[in-house]
Write a structure and sequence with these properties.
Radius of gyration: 56 Å
Keywords: Endosome, Golgi apparatus, Membrane
Membrane topology: Peripheral membrane protein
Protein name: Vps53 N-terminal domain-containing protein
Subcellular location: Endosome membrane; Golgi apparatus, trans-Golgi network membrane
Largest sheet: none
Structural class: mainly alpha
InterPro entries: Vps53, Vps53_C, Vps53_C_sf, Vps53_N
């Protein structure tokens, strides 16, 4: 192998790889001996490279075209360039100095020309000002006001150009002369006006006065204000003398004379004087506002003196209202008269507060502090209306009953509220309107309590007629809706900071309470008819019954009375919500009455209990169709109503199924009781034994078994006392205790029955007394009504014997409960074309 050649070729390669080169040189162990020769060759090649590099470095540094020479040449070029730049800058500065020297004279010539132009202009204006001033003085002496007006504007405009030259004596003198001429013109024009009005020569000198107003317009706002103020004082001088200096003429009794006097004066102004003043001055409107300001101040003093009188003859409210109404009519007349043209910003006697002229309230505001007398008069008027409403017939003699009709007094009261609210909103939107809202609330409460409830207490033992109850129901619903709308209407009118203090929600609840009482009165009508059927049930010997029939005879009679009455009542109940409430409460009370009649019918044998269970099933199926008697109810009856009927009637099943179990073997009766009734009460278990007429000698063993079994495996699931059995048999002769059996599924009508000593017999000895229906219904509500209305499964009514709530509070409470399901009903009832369809409004 030629190592030198191989090494040379490998070292010159661009992609030289020393490892590959070594592997090539020493590919076999035998080549190791050539290491010295390879090393010598590489060292020789290295030396050659070093000599070549050194030679190239010397040539680069010291050759004829070396880098050092090029750098020295570049530095010499830069120095030459800097010298040339400095030379150019020097020549530029010299050129600038030369140009400045050449143009200095031209600048001086331009300045001189500009100053000369300004001087000529100023001299020309001064000449024009002097000439115009002399002409203006001559025209002023001859009272040529039209020419004076135009020339005065030119003089004032020219004078503004010399404001900066007042340090010059001649200019200062001229300025003083112009100001003096302005003052003389002002005094001269005012003197001309005074002479013309004093000598009644306005018509003869109208042309001069019209032109004089042009001069006053040119003189500025101060001159215009002075002449307008003088004119107003002149025109109102007689008014102030007559009505301020004379107690009789200035009294409230003569308020009409004030307005009549001003109307005559305003007519004179429009016929004779209005043409004198420029239209943009709006002198007539300013004159009217000045009259209103003065009259308002007069009324404030008169009213204050009237309230401070010590002779007892204080301000008559009728006189106050008459004056107030006449004042508002006068203000509205002025507003219509002056509102046809767009309002301008004008300086007047009454514009110190920069107010926008608006005649509404400009005088009547003086009456506002005394409007409490008016509110008191409305209170007295309403207080007189309530007793009269109590004695009015529910249906006028010349009209026939209509299911949509209202009690006539409700329409009258509605219109009274509407008119009164409209009047008060015009008089005051502050404290007085808030006082009126409280008066409204007070008499809404009294109307609900003293009028509507009193209608439900009529009729003696039979109660009021059905038509009367329907009218009360319609009226209560009408005012329930309109009380809320009345509140919103007042809040829209009253000042925003007082809106939160207006609240008629309790009055709305009170009327809903009246509606609930009316619904319960309709339920009582059905209960009265059912007395015979319940009596037949009690007369049946349930303890010796041997077989079960289809249903007992009393069931047919009971259903006949219920359906007949429902067919009479439900078509008259226009709103489905109230029809549903009536049916719900009727079903609830019938279920409660059925439970208590079971107690009265004791003893009940197993066959008797089975017959009662069958009778209950027949009753349930028939009661499911109650709503079908209402033409306004959906057909078929809603599923919710059917569930409600079944929930009310099914709560009887545990009692009857327990009574079906034979007392022997005793374990069977105990287990049935624990499974069906599901409580731990010995007293309740004794009630079952008593209902079944179990022999007294068997009681100890049954009670012992009951004590053992109730502690068994299911002890934790047992109630302490069953709500079904707990209230039963505590006072069989006095009627049902509580609104329902232990509070399970009770309704407001059932609570009312308990409070009334038994509405309808319900298997009781007490008789229904319609004369005390309203009070007893409300007492029942006070005792803890928790729920009323469609869709309720029924909850109990607790007995609150210690409560001392008022009748009106009871109405509100029962209304809140009733409104959960019936509140917010559809459109209000109407009566012919005169029936209101909204809340009182203006």
């Amino acid at each position: 192998m030629n190592i030198a050649v191989a090494g040379s070729l490998s070292l010159d390669s661009v992609e030289y790889d020393p490892i590959a080169h070594l592997n090539l040189l020493f590919s076999h162990p035998s080549t190791v001996s050539s290491v010295a020769r390879v090393s010598s060759t590489i060292q020789h090649h290295k030396d050659d490279l070093s000599r070549s590099i050194a030679s190239l470095e010397w040539a680069q540094a010291y050759g004829p075209d070396s880098s050092l020479e090029r750098m020295q040449s570049a530095q010499a070029g830069l120095a030459s360039l800097f010298q040339r730049i400095e030379s150019v800058r020097s020549r530029a500065l010299q050129t600038e100095r030369d140009i400045t020297t050449m143009t200095a004279d031209i600048k001086r010539l331009d300045g001189t020309k500009r100053n000369l132009t300004l001087s000529m202009t100023a001299l020309k204006r001064l000449q024009m000002l002097t000439t115009a001033y002399e002409q203006l003085r001559g025209l002023a002496r001859t009272r040529q006001y039209r020419e004076c007006a135009g020339l005065l504007q030119a003089v004032l405009q020219l004078m503004r150009h010399f404001n900066s030259y007042r340090s010059i004596e001649q200019i200062a003198v001229l300025s003083r002369n112009v100001s003096e001429l302005q003052r003389e013109l002002l005094e001269q024009v005012c003197e001309d006006f005074e002479m013309a009005f004093a000598k009644s020569e306005v018509a003869a000198r109208r042309g001069v006065l019209v032109e004089a107003c042009l001069v006053m317009d040119a003189l500025g706002d101060h001159a215009k204000t002075r002449i307008v103020t003088w004119y107003i004082n002149t025109e109102l001088r007689e008014y102030r003398q007559v009505f301020r200096g004379n107690d009789e003429a200035g009294s409230l009794d003569n308020i009409g004379r004030r307005y009549a006097w001003f109307k005559r004066m305003l007519k004179t102004h429009e016929d004779e004087h209005a043409v004198i003043f420029p239209p943009q001055w709006r002198v007539g409107e300013t004159l009217a506002m000045a009259f209103c300001d003065g009259t308002r101040d007069d009324f404030k003093g008169i009213l204050e003196r009237s309230m401070r009188r010590i002779d007892g003859n204080k301000l008559d409210v009728n006189l106050l209202l008459g004056c107030l109404q006449e004042t508002m009519d006068f203000e509205q007349n002025l507003e219509r008269r002056f509102s046809s043209n767009p309002r301008a910003s004008i300086d007047t006697l009454s514009s110190a507060d920069d107010r926008i002229q608006n005649f509404n309230g400009s005088i009547s505001v003086a009456f506002e502090p005394y409007l409490n007398l008016w509110v008191e008069s409305q209170d007295k008027a309403l207080a007189a209306m309530i007793p009269r409403y109590k004695t009015q017939p529910l249906v006028p003699p010349d009209e026939e009953f209509s299911p949509q009709a209202l009690v006539p007094s409700a329409i009258e009261l509605f219109h009274f509220y509407k008119l009164t609210l409209s009047q008060c909103a015009k008089l005051s939107t502050g404290e007085r309107l808030l006082d009126l809202s409280r008066t409204f609330a007070k008499y809404l409460d009294e109307y609900a309590q003293q009028v509507l409830i009193s209608f439900l207490q009529r009729g003696g033992p039979q109660g009021p007629p059905i038509q009367d109850i329907i009218l009360v129901l319609n009226t209560a619903d009408f005012w329930h809706i309109n009380a809320n709308q009345l509140e919103e209407s007042i809040k829209k009118r009253i000042d925003p900071d007082m809106a939160s203090r207006v609240d008629l929600s309790s009055q709305s609840d009170a009327f809903m309470g009246v509606a609930s009482a009316a619904v319960m009165a309709l339920v009582a009508k059905v209960e009265l008819d059912c007395e015979g059927a319940w009596r037949e049930m009690k007369n049946t010997n349930w303890g010796r019954m041997e077989s079960v029939s289809d249903h007992s005879s009393y069931v047919g009679e009971l259903l006949k009375h219920v359906n007949d009455r429902c067919q009479e009542i439900l078509p008259l109940v226009i709103k489905h919500q109230y029809a549903r409430a009536f049916c719900d409460n009727l079903v609830e009370h019938l279920a409660t009455a059925y439970i208590h009649n079971i107690v009265v019918c004791r003893p009940v044998c197993e066959v008797g209990a089975e017959q009662m269970l069958l009778d209950k099933y027949v009753l349930t199926k028939s009661l499911e169709t109650l709503l079908s008697h209402s033409p306004h109810a959906p057909q078929p009856p809603p599923a919710a109503f059917i569930r409600r009927v079944n929930q009310s009637m099914t709560r009887i099943d545990p009692l009857l199924k327990t009574l079906q179990v034979r007392p022997s073997p005793p374990e069977g009766l105990v287990q049935a009781y624990l499974t069906l009734i599901g409580d731990r009460s010995d007293a309740n278990f004794r009630k079952i034994l008593e209902l079944k007429a179990v022999r007294k000698q068997d009681w100890p063993h049954l009670l012992e078994l009951f004590a053992v079994h109730r502690e068994g495996a299911s002890a934790g699931k047992l109630l302490q006392a069953s709500p079904l059995l707990t209230p039963l048999m505590s006072s069989a002769a006095a009627g049902p205790v509580g609104a329902a059996a232990g509070g399970v599924g009770s309704s407001v009508s059932a609570a009312a029955a308990a409070a009334a000593g038994g509405i309808g017999s319900a298997g009781l000895q007490g008789r229904f007394d319609a004369a005390s229906l309203g009070e007893k219904l409300l007492n029942a509500a006070r005792d803890g009504v928790e729920r009323m209305g469609p869709g309720a499964a029924g909850v109990g009514a607790g007995v609150g014997l210690g409560e001392k709530a008022t009748i009106n509070e009871n109405l509100k409470n029962i209304g809140k409960f009733f409104r959960r399901d019936i509140g917010g009903l559809g459109a209000r009832f109407g009566k012919r074309d005169t029936t209101p369809t909204g809340a009182p409004d203006s």
